[in-house]
């Protein structure tokens, strides 16, 4: 699992073709109780840093960015029914989208932080 | 007040051409009789907004168009440099502003809104209806608010590192208190309220979350300002209303009372209702107070801010910090990004198809066991009406007159053929739509059910 400076995580599949993305515990905590999630549509082309959806919590509409470039293949529809899953399990069941990785993405992932580096980052 | 400045300071006042922009505002608002101002031309605006050295910017809009004002705000959110801090004040003509993820059929009495548009005089309200009230879905979260010319909106955009939900509400409270409004405080929901009651206690005057009148007893405070937020990758936006002298407080509840509310269970965000009150200040007094507090909070020389207040555009630079302060108006609608933003906000797709999933049902269900008000007597007693919608489109429906069973299923299926995938906001004549199916035999039933659905969706 790798992490971005914007508090997103990505877990790459065994075959290296897809990455599952979501927001970190730290981000979920700062957001507060999530009451609604706007998910990306499948087939959406995304570039690293683009908005792939939004979350509403405490009257705030917050953009969710993708840590990698690629094409959205699946969104976690369970979040429509239970937005609170993002708070309960942001780095597991609360995943937001699965993205088909491009070559560019593989480079981008190398630049992301590992768990230790991310922990250090949020401590600052 | 002369701020101390070094030799490197350049104080320049740029005066703009006044031929197009000199406006005398007509007396739409009682306290705003006539005032000449010079507004900033569109090209200068774009240049100054996007300039990386425009570290602090203050704008006041003299347009009353909510689509324009919200689009100017969005432009500021997207185009100002990441380290800058912006204050934008604006007032809108009577409008209802719903949050990004809300359901207009639950939050708003659309029939009342549309009645004025269609000169439909058969709706009686007391006091008399307001005339044309617009409906706008904003890009930030939160609930539904009513804007009119007695309400001034403030908006602050800043870097995420400097953002806190209460920070600028506290700033506004300081401004209000300086004008003698000592009952104002920020509450737990980041709103601003006026404490009621006469019980005075000793409190820390610098604490913007408590007043001498804050008490535990049941006297509910009156909300004067609601807040909403939008957080992007590089910027944080907080905007809020402030009810100063709205003449419409008595009638706002009518507009915010939707006939479908008891029948709809919706995902998304529901409004939290609060009793409201006016502060009792003029728009100008409030604007000046907020600008002053913004300057104090962000170390802006007060002289620089006078530009927006007095309608003379100023750009002040102190060392590397440049300030921009200006009045803006309809001219900004000519800026392509802003015009595009206005089109998006005006579009029926954004207004209605952004609506999260909801289910409308005439009778209690396991998911929504609330008691329902009795249906109109023209509707046969065993009738059940249920619709599921996502993104403002009808996905599923189950309308049947006989009790559950094969007859009911057949009827519901027939009716659904007419309703499937229809965009709810586009259905003007529910009776005709239902009548087009083979489902209902008795045209009186078609009429009764059609009328009920029309009422639910604001068309009757």
From TrEMBL, chain A:
Q: Which cofactors are required for activity?
A: (R)-lipoate
The record lists the organism as Xylona heveae (strain CBS 132557 / TC161)
Classification of source organism: Eukaryota, Fungi, Dikarya, Ascomycota, Pezizomycotina
> Family per UniProt?
Belongs to the GcvH family.
Q: Which GO terms describe its molecular function?
A: lipoic acid binding
What are the GO cellular component annotations? glycine cleavage complex; mitochondrion
* Top-level lineage group: Eukaryota
* Swiss-Prot/TrEMBL GO biological process terms: glycine decarboxylation via glycine cleavage system; one-carbon metabolic process; protein lipoylation
> Lipoyl-binding domain: from which residue to which, for each copy?
18-100
Q: What is this protein called?
A: Glycine cleavage system H protein
Subunit arrangement?
Answer: The glycine cleavage system is composed of four proteins: P, T, L and H.
Automatic annotation (TrEMBL), chain B:
Transport: present as a keyword of the record?
A: no
Return the InterPro entries for the record. Answer: aa-tRNA-synth_II/BPL/LPL, BPL_LPL_catalytic, LipoylTrfase_LipoateP_Ligase
Q: Does the keyword Transferase apply?
A: yes
Domain named BPL/LPL catalytic: residues: 81-302
Keywords, ordered alphabetically:
Transferase
For this entry, list what GO says about its biological process.
Answer: protein lipoylation
Source domain of life is Eukaryota
The entry lists its GO molecular-function terms as:
lipoyltransferase activity
Q: In which pathway does it act?
A: Protein modification; protein lipoylation via exogenous pathway; protein N(6)-(lipoyl)lysine from lipoate: step 2/2
Gene3D superfamilies found in the cross-reference section: Bira Bifunctional Protein, Domain 2
Which terms in the GO cellular component ontology are assigned?
mitochondrion
What family is it from? Answer: Belongs to the LplA family.
Check the record and name the PANTHER family matching this protein.
LIPOATE-PROTEIN LIGASE, LIPOYLTRANSFERASE 1, MITOCHONDRIAL
Q: What does this protein do?
A: Catalyzes both the ATP-dependent activation of exogenously supplied lipoate to lipoyl-AMP and the transfer of the activated lipoyl onto the lipoyl domains of lipoate-dependent enzymes.
Protein name (database record) = Putative lipoate-protein ligase A
User: Organism source for this protein?
Assistant: Xylona heveae (strain CBS 132557 / TC161)
């Amino acid at each position: 699992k790798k992490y971005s400076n914007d508090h997103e995580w990505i877990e790459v599949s065994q075959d290296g073709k897809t990455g599952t993305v979501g927001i970190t515990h730290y981000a979920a905590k700062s957001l507060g109780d999530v009451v609604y999630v706007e998910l990306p549509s499948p087939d959406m082309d995304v570039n690293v840093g683009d908005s792939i959806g939004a979350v509403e919590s405490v009257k705030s509409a917050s953009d969710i960015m993708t840590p990698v470039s690629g094409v959205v293949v699946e969104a976690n529809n369970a979040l429509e029914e239970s937005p609170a899953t993002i708070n309960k399990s942001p780095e597991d069941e609360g995943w937001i989208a699965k993205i088909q990785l491009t070559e560019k993405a593989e480079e981008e992932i190398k630049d992301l932080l590992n768990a230790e580096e991310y922990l250090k980052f949020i401590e600052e | 007040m002369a701020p101390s400045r070094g030799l490197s300071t350049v104080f320049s006042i740029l005066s703009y051409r006044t031929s197009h922009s000199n406006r005398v505002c007509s007396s739409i608002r009682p306290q705003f009789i006539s005032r000449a101002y010079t507004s900033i031309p569109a090209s200068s605006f774009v240049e100054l907004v996007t300039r990386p050295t425009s570290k602090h910017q203050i704008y006041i809009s003299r347009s009353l168009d909510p689509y324009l004002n919200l689009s100017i705000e969005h432009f500021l959110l997207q185009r100002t440099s990441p380290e800058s801090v912006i204050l934008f004040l604006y007032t809108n003509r009577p409008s209802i502003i719903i949050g990004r993820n809300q359901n207009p059929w639950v939050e708003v009495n659309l029939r009342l809104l549309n009645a004025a548009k269609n000169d439909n005089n058969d709706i009686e309200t007391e006091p008399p209806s307001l005339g044309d009230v617009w409906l706008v879905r904003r890009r930030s979260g939160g609930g539904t608010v009513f804007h009119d010319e007695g309400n001034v909106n403030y908006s602050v955009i800043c870097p995420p590192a400097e953002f806190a939900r209460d920070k600028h509400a506290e700033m506004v409270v300081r401004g209000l208190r300086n004008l003698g409004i000592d009952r104002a405080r920020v509450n737990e929901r980041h709103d601003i309220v006026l404490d009621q009651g006469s019980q005075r206690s000793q409190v820390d005057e610098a604490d913007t979350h408590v007043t001498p009148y804050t008490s535990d007893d049941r006297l509910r405070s009156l909300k004067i300002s609601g807040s909403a937020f939008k957080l992007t990758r590089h910027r944080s936006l907080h905007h809020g209303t402030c009810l100063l002298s709205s003449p419409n407080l008595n009638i706002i509840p009518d507009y915010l009372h939707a006939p479908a509310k008891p029948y709809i269970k919706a995902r998304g965000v529901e409004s939290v209702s609060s009793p409201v009150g006016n502060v009792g200040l003029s728009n100008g007094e409030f604007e000046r107070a907020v600008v002053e507090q913004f300057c104090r909070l962000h170390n802006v020389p007060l002289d620089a801010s006078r530009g927006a207040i007095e309608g003379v555009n100023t750009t002040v630079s102190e060392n590397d910090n440049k300030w921009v302060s200006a009045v803006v108006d309809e001219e900004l609608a000519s800026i392509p990004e802003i015009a595009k933003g206005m089109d998006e906000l005006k579009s029926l797709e954004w207004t209605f198809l952004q609506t999260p999933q909801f289910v409308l049902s005439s009778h209690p269900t396991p998911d929504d066991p609330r008691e329902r008000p009795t249906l109109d007597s023209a509707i046969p007693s065993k009738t059940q009406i249920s619709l599921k919608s996502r993104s403002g489109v009808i996905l599923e429906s189950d309308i049947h007159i006989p009790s559950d069973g094969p007859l009911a299923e057949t009827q519901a299926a027939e009716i659904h053929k007419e309703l499937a995938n229809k965009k709810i906001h586009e259905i003007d004549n529910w009776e005709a739509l239902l009548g087009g199916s083979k489902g209902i035999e008795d045209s009186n039933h078609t009429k009764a059910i059609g009328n009920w659905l029309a009422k639910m969706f604001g068309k009757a």
